[in-house]
Design a protein that fits this description.
The complex is a heterodimer of chains A (about 625) and B (about 280).
Chain A (H helix, E strand, L loop, with lengths): L1 H8 L1 H9 L2 E8 L6 H11 L5 H14 L9 H4 L3 H6 L6 E6 L3 E7 L7 H8 L4 E7 L6 H12 L4 E7 L8 H18 L4 E5 L23 H7 L3 H5 L5 E3 L2 E6 L2 E7 L4 E2 L4 E5 L3 E9 L8 E2 L3 E6 L10 E4 L5 E12 L5 E2 L3 E6 L2 E15 L4 E3 L3 E2 L4 E14 L6 H4 E5 L6 E11 L1 H4 L9 H8 L5 E5 L6 H14 L4 E5 H6 L9 H20 L3 E5 L5 H8 L7 E7 L2 H7 L4 H6 L21 E4 L5 H14 L5
Parallel strand pairs in A: 1-3, 1-4, 4-5, 5-6, 25-27, 25-28, 26-27, 28-29
Antiparallel strand pairs in A: 2-3, 7-15, 8-9, 9-14, 10-13, 11-12, 11-15, 12-14, 16-22, 16-24, 17-21, 18-19, 18-23, 19-20, 19-22, 23-24
Helix pairs in contact in A: 1-2, 15-21, 17-18
Chain B lengths: L1 H6 L3 E4 L4 H14 L8 E4 L6 H14 L3 E4 L2 H5 L8 H21 L3 E3 L16 E4 L27 E4 L7 H11 L10 E8 L2 E4 L14 E7 L9 E4 L5 H10 L17 H8 L3
Parallel strand pairs in B: 1-2, 1-4, 2-3, 4-6
Antiparallel strand pairs in B: 5-6, 7-8, 7-9, 8-10, 9-10
Helix pairs in contact in B: 2-6, 6-7
The chains are: A alpha/beta (about 625), B alpha/beta (about 280).
């Protein structure tokens, strides 16, 4: 490449040119057999980005585990982790770097294996462009459709379809045109516009860097020619409306208060009128602070610090936006969610939602539908499993500033975090939002919770009994209620079995419906405490996340979790309601404790070992803790 | 860096005195300007660094008023671990990997910045920017959190920690160019100069202090050399070079086709050595 000459003859000119090169990020998608790793390996090799010792290692590896006989096996350059190398497949996202005289590149290598939607979505989220590989012998396969759909979903505007292994179809134009027609038809159905088909052979290098002489009938660019010319997303975003999610408040002294963040759209300069969302406070940008000096202007992608003309309350998670083109603010959202965890997404569950720099609890209201990514068909669903994609309704406890994802990836993309494991379990794209006060207004109530409780002369709270069926939850709750009643307390007992005869009549015992039942139980308990009552709730509530969701409805200290702990064998022996016997006979599927999973509380407020406690002693123990906490005198 | 400061309870920046650390320090000063970097800097010292490196460390700490913590694995020292008798693997494992774990535990850091890049080595290409470690400091390559857009999930339980690699997507060329453009000070050893060296197994080792053990018949000779990476001096290979300015270094790097880590003796051990080290807690 010409770069080499410039490096040896005029290094300063080279350095200057390199500094001004644009950076293009692209992802490659294709299955193990499409020759994807070979293609990237060849790009690195041809761009002379391999060092001698890497080449030596490659030669050695090619001889040892290579699949190309005496030839270099470029695929081995890419497969990073030892275990994967042995399996011969890439199972994660790997990033590679190379540069040409025009551009710097970051390649995300993403797997084509079926269950790895999540990795592809991850790689695509930061890419400007996608290279989708297919095997010319096989044409447009289901996985080609899936990759195209995901790439389109993630907002990638430029797609190169690399029609690989042309050498194995005698470089036939007829075959290429056939594939081209088939793909165009599918792309139209998808609404994908910016795509280019390129016939190539990664193994031989045809149309990878240079135009191939073997395919004179093709007059489009080589793959590299295409990559050199395609538009970089960040440049486009500089023309979008100004957005700056506040990441950190910089207060080194009392006379400086700056709001640090990375510009997520448009540009900003001193004197610009801005709004701070979600509270809609308007002010003017005073300074755009860089390092040791101020900037005249900052654009999308730059990390800066702003100071504002007025002393208004701004904290991490707020978004500073152009006053004349503000972002939207909502508490209810319609979003496309890609589920990335083994544990399914369930209606009624609450997750942490991270959008921009803000983290808020978000509850899954109805799941509108899930998508079959192969047929684009919409399917009714009440849960999303690993690698499934669905459109769901999310409700946050507080207002959130956002843009629809199609307008801005940084202010419209979000992740969902499991509140217990802290894992990132889902990725989402906001489509639209609504203010709660616009759809279902909260009725202003003049007599509040405190007033009602005061009249009853007590402090309302919830005692939540969880445990296996037959562990004795209802019996203990019953005994405790008698005790409280005798003391003149106003109580109510909500029991799992009884709830299912009425309010939750429509629900089955699937995991999704158990979560929904749990959500309803929590909400009923909340209404009862609003009425000033002391609530005793006895529910199997097998999932930790659901109990946490219930807990989050109540003020700190007013939710007392009691683990009524009886081992499954003992519960089955005692089997007061004959449940285990019926499960045994197959009359009830998936009884918790007899096959169905139960997640015991890690740190319950009260732990009752029912192998040693009788019902009266257990109720007394709970009562003692309530006294200790000052909930009852 | 701002993200980590906002989310972590007790962050620290690992400072190894090398060029990547110089860039990291510079970036930290930028990120929080006009405030100073709101975290301490930690050097896990094997006691075998070049004298030039110790001088440079003192200068940086002084110039930028850094809260610099130096940790030495005293237990390792007491056991007499050194690069000559223990060999590179044991020396690195005890003084660096174990030392790092000790220091993180001692100060209770829950987030540590490192300067590793994905272009350095194959297993790093698959590591996240926010990389999680169990309470035992182990990395699980099969169970990494997906990182989408610019959203980083830094949440962790007590005892768990995160290693954060802000330079993940930089290349070696990017690092050098940035040093050049921003005028960032680096240890003089990166520039070619006449230095006393001996040749061992095809590698030039600098005789940096009196602790260097010479083999029978070995005579230090003066050669014009420089270092592409810096570590413990008995384990760092020098290259013969005329490059005494940044543009010349970059030129030489681009024309010489030997990758950066080759100068480090520890990488030769096994094909997947880095991955194994990382699973065990090496940075």
């Amino acid at each position: 490449m010409a770069q080499t000459d410039l490096i040896s003859e005029d290094i300063l000119a080279y350095l200057d040119a390199h500094e001004h090169k644009s950076l293009l990020r692209f992802i490659t998608c294709g299955s193990v057999d499409d020759g994807k790793s070979t293609l990237i390996g060849r790009l690195l090799y041809e761009a002379q980005m391999l060092f001698e010792d890497q080449l030596t290692a490659l030669e050695a590896d090619s001889r040892r585990v290579g699949t190309q006989g005496e030839e270099l096996d470029f695929a081995l350059l890419l497969d990073g982790l030892a275990a994967e190398r042995e399996q011969g497949i890439t199972i994660d996202v790997a990033y590679r770097f190379f540069s040409t005289d025009r551009r710097k590149y970051i390649v995300a290598d993403t797997p084509g294996h079926e269950q790895y939607t999540r990795n592809m979505v991850t790689g695509a989220s930061t890419a400007d462009c996608a290279v989708i590989l297919l095997d010319a012998r096989k044409g447009v396969l289901t996985q080609t459709r899936r990759h195209s759909y995901l790439v389109h979903l993630l907002g990638i505007r430029h797609v190169a379809v690399a029609c690989n292994k042309m050498d194995l179809v005698e470089f036939s134009e007829g075959r290429f045109r056939e594939i081209e027609r088939e793909y165009a038809e599918f792309a139209a159905q998808l609404g994908l516009e910016g795509f280019t088909l390129i016939p190539l052979s990664a193994l031989r290098g045809d149309n990878v860097i240079e135009r191939s002489e073997a395919m004179p009938w093709y007059d489009g660019p080589s793959l590299m020619g295409y990559l050199e010319a395609v538009e970089v997303d960040q440049e486009r975003m500089q023309d979008a409306p100004f957005r700056l999610p506040v990441q950190w408040v910089n207060r080194p002294s009392s006379d400086f208060r700056g709001f640090a963040g990375t510009v997520a759209g448009g540009s900003v300069a001193p004197g610009d009128r801005v709004l701070v969302l979600p509270n809609r406070r308007e002010t003017t940008v005073e300074r755009v602070v860089g390092f040791e000096t101020d900037l005249e202007r900052a654009v999308a992608g730059q990390a800066v610090t702003l100071t504002l003309a007025d002393e208004i309350d701004v904290s991490r998670g707020d978004v500073v936006v152009a006053a004349d083109a503000p972002a939207r603010v909502a508490e209810q959202f319609e979003a496309t969610v890609v589920w990335m965890a083994e544990e399914p997404l369930l209606r009624g569950r609450t997750y942490l939602m991270r959008c921009g720099t803000k983290t808020v609890p978000a509850t899954v209201a109805p799941i509108h539908y899930k998508l079959d990514v192969d047929t684009l068909e919409r399917i009714a669903a009440n849960q999303l499993d690993l690698n499934e994609i669905g459109v769901v309704q999310l409700e946050t406890g507080s207002p959130l500033a956002f843009d629809p994802y199609v307008e801005n990836r940084d202010t419209g993309g979000f992740i969902l975090i499991d509140r217990i494991t802290n894992h990132t379990v889902g990725a989402g794209l906001l489509r639209s939002g609504a203010r709660r006060d616009e759809s279902v207004p909260w009725q202003e109530l003049e007599i509040d919770r405190e007033a009602r409780a005061a009249l009853l002369g007590q402090r309302p709270f919830v005692v939540w009994f969880t445990g296996l069926p037959g562990a004795g939850k209802s019996s203990v709750a019953n005994a405790l209620e008698k005790r409280l009643h005798a003391l003149g307390r106003h109580t109510v007992l909500i029991d799992g079995d009884n709830l299912r005869h009425g309010l939750s009549k429509d629900l089955s015992f699937s995991d999704a419906d158990r979560a929904e039942n749990n959500r309803r139980a929590g909400e009923v308990a909340k209404l009862m405490t609003d009425a000033g009552l002391i609530v005793l709730a006895a529910f199997v509530s097998p999932f930790r996340a659901d109990r946490e969701t219930a807990r989050s409805l109540f003020p700190e200290g007013e939710f007392v979790e009691v683990h009524v702990d009886l081992p499954a064998e003992l519960a089955a022996q005692r089997d007061r309601k004959g449940l285990y016997a019926r499960a045994e006979s197959g009359a009830i599927g998936d009884l918790t404790g007899a096959g169905g999973a139960y997640e015991p509380p890690e740190a319950p407020d009260v732990h009752l070992d029912m192998a040693t406690f009788d019902v009266a002693a257990a109720a007394e123990e709970v009562f003692r803790v309530l006294q200790e906490r000052g909930l009852v005198e | 860096m701002r993200e980590v400061v906002a989310e972590a309870e007790n962050p620290v920046m690992l400072y190894s005195i090398g060029k990547d650390s110089s860039v990291m320090l510079h970036l930290a000063r930028k990120a929080f300007w006009p405030a100073p970097p709101p975290f301490p800097f930690l050097h896990v010292d094997t006691t075998w660094k070049f004298q030039d490196m110790y001088r440079f460390r003192a200068r940086m700490a002084e110039e930028h008023g850094l809260n610099l913590l130096v940790h030495v694995n005293e237990e390792g020292l007491a056991r007499g671990i050194n690069p000559f008798d223990s060999g590179s693997v044991v020396h690195t494992d005890v003084m660096k990997t174990e030392g790092l774990k000790q220091a993180l535990d001692k100060y209770g850091f829950d987030a540590a910045f490192g300067g590793a890049r994905r272009d350095e080595e194959r297993s790093r290409a698959k590591e996240r920017i926010f990389s999680f470690r169990t309470a035992q400091h182990r990395w699980d390559p099969k169970n990494q959190r997906p990182e989408l857009w610019r959203l980083y999930n830094a949440r962790h339980r007590r005892g768990e920690s995160i290693r954060v690699f802000p330079l993940s997507n930089w290349t070696e060329l990017d690092v050098w160019l940035y040093i050049h453009r921003e005028g960032i000070p680096i240890v003089p050893l990166y520039f070619a100069a006449e230095r006393p060296v001996v040749e061992r197994d095809g590698t030039l080792i600098m005789v940096d202090d009196e602790r260097m053990r010479l083999e029978p018949g070995e005579e230090p000779m003066r050669r014009k050399v420089r270092f592409r990476t810096l570590g413990c001096y008995p384990l760092s290979g020098a290259v013969e070079s005329e490059a005494d300015t940044l543009p010349k270094i970059i030129q030489e790097m681009l024309l010489a086709k030997t990758s950066e880590r080759q100068g480090r003796v520890i990488d030769y051990d096994e094909a997947a050595s880095m991955e194994k080290k990382k699973v065990e807690g090496y940075f």
